[in-house]
Design a protein that fits this description.
One of its GO terms (molecular function) is MAP kinase phosphatase activity. This protein is α/β, with parallel strands linked by helices. The chain has six helices and five strands.
Length: 257
């Protein structure tokens, strides 16, 4: 007969659930892979490198593989799930977020910024590496790179396609975006076409190049027209003011649209 749950904790998350039968942990959401999951869903032992030589994104399973992390040079771990155990405190420097809701992006960013200054390799993880940890990585990219939310999510999604944020995480990121860029900032609004976080933007190339839509600026009047079709209502030089009645809006010198 199987031992009682309280005598047989999960070897991965340390909580008590029927992990051998594939039961989801009620505390942290961990679930052991069952044979029915198929070969195609098996998770890589390696976390995803989001920023070369610095920032990695992964799951609790990735965080439990000390040899893999040491091979990657990881020395610091940001644990985004308050109920997940820090498994190897003698081998890595941990920072565990204590607040579950809303997501505490500022605290996480302070830790990641310190790791960046110290040139440390850091892993950010949640249970599956698809939601909470991805949200924290996106928030860090917004603050450190000055990218908007859609840009940051595009970058993360291109490197870790299995990322899938919940509505709650998206809402927290929208509020953080407005905090960083001001209340007038246009928030990211999830739509049916963006549910997979594809957004339709061109995929960035390399690990240091910003997404192609990084510097979206309003075009000037001269950039909004074709060179082959110059505007007829604009004159340049001193002639533009000669004989013009300032109160006459119908004059060719007026720029009103």
């Amino acid at each position: 007969m199987r031992k009682r749950e309280r005598e047989n904790p999960c070897g991965i998350c340390g909580h008590f659930h029927k992990y051998e039968e594939g039961e989801v942990c009620g505390v942290c959401g961990h679930r052991s892979k069952s044979p029915d999951d198929g070969e195609g869903t098996r998770e890589s032992a390696f976390p995803t490198e989001v920023l070369q030589g610095f920032l990695f994104l992964g799951s609790y399973d990735n965080a439990s593989r000390t040899e893999v992390l040491k091979t990657l040079g990881v020395s610091h771990i940001l644990n985004t799930v308050p109920d997940c155990h820090n498994l190897y405190c003698s081998s890595f420097t941990y920072h565990c977020l204590q607040r579950d809701k809303p997501l505490d992006f500022e605290e996480a960013n302070q830790f990641l910024e310190q790791c960046e200054r110290d040139k440390s390799h850091v892993l950010v993880h949640c249970m599956t590496g698809k939601n909470r940890s991805a949200a924290f990585v996106a928030a860090f990219l917004m603050k450190s790179k000055g990218w908007r939310l859609a840009q940051a999510l595009q970058w993360v999604k291109d490197r870790r396609p299995q990322v899938q944020l919940t509505d709650a995480s998206q809402h927290d990121l929208q509020e953080y975006e407005q905090k960083l860029f001001g209340p007038s900032a246009q928030p990211f609004v999830p739509t049916e076409s963006s549910a997979s976080l594809g957004f339709g933007y061109q995929k960035p190339e390399g690990d240091i190049q910003a997404p192609i839509f990084d510097k979206m600026t309003m075009l000037s009047a001269f950039e909004r027209v074709s060179l082959n079709d110059p505007p007829t209502n604009i004159t340049l030089g001193a002639e533009s003011t000669a004989g013009v009645n300032p109160g006459d809006n119908n004059n060719n010198g007026g720029m009103e649209r």
